[in-house]
Amino acid sequence: MAQPQRRPDSSSLAEVLDRILDKGVVIDIWARVSVVGIELLTVEARVVVASVDTFLHYAEEIAKIEQATAEGELEELEELEVERRPESSPQSASE
Amino acid sequence: MFPVNNRYVYGVVEGDPIEFETDAVGGASVVYTISHRRLGAVVSDIDTTDPEETDEDATRHDEVLRRIMNDGDGRAVVPMQFGMAFESDRALKNVLRGALPAFRRALNDVEGRVELGVKIVRAEDADVDADAVTERIADELEPIAAQSVGNDLFSDRLVLNRSYLVDREDREAFDEAIARLEEDEDDLVVRYTGPFAPYSFVDVTIGAQR
Q1: pLDDT in tens, B14-41
Q2: 3-state secondary structure B164-202
Q3: Which CATH class is domain B113-196?
Q4: Which of residues 31-70 of A touch B (CB under 8 A)?
Q5: Which of A88, B1, B28, B187 sits in a 20 to 30 Å window from B67, CA-based?
Q6: Where along chain B do its domains lie?
Q7: Which letter does DSSP use for residue A74 in this model?
Q8: What is the ipTM of this complex?
Q9: Is A4 within 8 Å of chain B by CB?
């Protein structure tokens, strides 16, 4: 017997708005208008299901940025990344 | 003629430049890429750095991303949130350069994948064991999806509200799993939407130190 056909609905404006106004990459206005002497901070929270443990790690990294900024050592931390770790992602099944 | 030296950014791609005509955000008619090395910001010209949120322009933003995602065999794009307009090409290239590793990783995460939305609503007057339903759905869908993320349960009739990042080649298996759920669960209404650009799976924030 053939599998029942089911296709997702692609026409919902509400579903698009939920995503486009709330998700996606965010770049703050200062990074969008300034050029001279600007230092960028990039934060990647590659954490789909955040745990307390991940949050604490994240907070620690943010503190490092703040400290480095104060000390003028930002470049080393430009590629800061909070890695998603297995114990923080119980719903991520395929890895 | 209004000055159009600001750039509205839809998303970031890697590789060959893009150019096509369409109804773009803010009344522009051409979408193209501004590149730094292999990265390209998908943009159109605009006369402001603070575009007004309208349904029409939100739809246009989304349609530009869909067009790129559906190009040929499908192209990876890291979607921006609505409203990311830059004052100048220099400011834009500065961000592409400064956040290049983050964009690369995000592109790698979403390559060959699309976002699908699933909302499960309890039928009116139905008595549903929400935990059991959630577990059954996780058992069916999580093994197929590459990643998933929960969204707000804004109504007490909403049993589950999640976004799934799914490999294109697993789309059919996902469709079939949704169909099985619908067949088996009479007390549940399944709202299945997409495919969307992977908005929910690119959690990147870029700021400037002032």
Answers
A1: 999 999 999 999 999 999 999 999 999 9
A2: EEEEHHHHHHHHHHHHHHHHHCCCEEEEEEEEECCHHHC
A3: alpha beta
A4: 31-35, 38-49, 69
A5: B1
A6: 6-111, 113-196
A7: G
A8: 0.92
A9: yes
